[in-house]
Write a structure and sequence with these properties.
heterodimer; A: about 260 residues; mainly alpha; about 80% helix; globular; B: mainly alpha; about 0% strand
Amino acid sequence: MKVRSVVISSLVVQIKQTYARNMYKFCLLVSPLMSTILLAEMYRNSEHDNFTSYIVLGAGLMSLWGCICFSSAGDINRERYSNTLSLIFISPSSFQAILFGKVIGNTILSLFSVLLTAVYSFVLYRQPIVIENMPMFLVSFLITIISFMVFSIFVAYILVLSRRTEILMNCIDVPLILVCGFVFPIEVLPMWTQYISKAFPMTWSIKLMRQSIMSPSVDGDFFISMTYAIGTIIVYALLSNLLYKLIAKRVRIEASLEMA
Amino acid sequence: MDIVKRFISQSLLAGKAILGAFDLVQFICYQVGLTLLTLIFYCVLAFFTTGSYDLTRWVVGNSLVLCVNSSIYSLGTVFISDRHFGRLRFIIASPMNLLAVILQKGVIAILMSLGTVTGGFIIGGLIFGVDFTGMNFGVFLLAALAATFSAAGMGLMMSAVALLTDSVHLILNIVANIILILSGANFPITQLPMVAQHMAKIFPLHRAVAAANMSFGNFEYNKYVLLIIGEIALGICFYLIAFVMLKIMEKVAIKKASLEMF
């Protein structure tokens, strides 16, 4: 079976299965509303009054990450509970292609939460959504989506190794929002934390998005951030590939996917 | 005496059921690390939005909100777990008082929540430089106890609701998010529309957060007592609603000879 067909089939099945889950419906439909209200009220009377940059983008990214985190990462757990993890792992179709299809499916569906955040923001707060540099915003949005996908594949591989997936995926939700600067710039954090932040591709891509929303012009700093974003994406993609090879080898030697 | 012993042993068992999913590392990551990071997240956000270095109000408010983890998420699924592990039929069929069953499950959750809230408050306070001199710790502790009591009541009520639906996680997440918004921990709820302000009165933590904020000055005895009594009364209502719901379900279950009600 061609890799493309595997990816597409996995993607279609994933979208159907994911949307059928009520918890996902919360992440997709309700969570954007809650995040929007919380951020809009916290930012009310603040000197940082760029509504699009801090409320729409912040709440949108929080919801998007929630959807991706609890679906892509949680899928491993669901496959394990359904006793299908070992089957998809040893099937002639590549496990990497199946997982990639799942992540793309989740991401496509989860993008709806970003759109919904913009709608909620406009309906509830009547604030216009202003993007100063639309072409660069679209480029940085694309980079952000890719960075989320690459990172969630990396996390999904790590979670293959653990039976405590539910706890682990809960443990990465808020910390990533905090460290990657989803709702405030990472410069607010202590210096040592900023070094950790810079290791994640999302930190750079979100910085790009915020810059393109707030500034009509593109400076050297923008391209430096873009280089770091692409660089970290490549590093995570390579790490994921390496991790898969190590896991596949270990699974075949120990004949078990229950490694924790 | 036997009744007390049984109550304690059943409470410990309920506590083990909640904590059983964790080993030490996971407990530290989830119950300690994650709760602290959640508190830190909201305090840093408050720092960025207000520009104020005095984050006492947010440390106090968000440390109380930490009890949502144990009270809503953990307690909210206890009866579902009982059904899952085949224990619910014994609870329904046994002659034991249902209210005692509910309270047994609440005790450990309240103690755990109280520990989380107090620990979160102290560590959060140290991280964000809260000035503890002149603070009335008793005022805070009583407010925290009232908060955990009412939040645990709501958790148990949700747990009873959970038996009627297959969307328990959806409901628990919505409730937890509403509590976070309406608690007043992160922004004054007077900013919200009147409907939301009235809604806040029937959700836990709103009064407790206001009471706990009095531990750092502006202490008004009458207002404080009213807030604490209000929070505890709300908690009692939740326990009673949970009791009534389970009683109805018990009757329906016996009549239909089934516990699968959704």
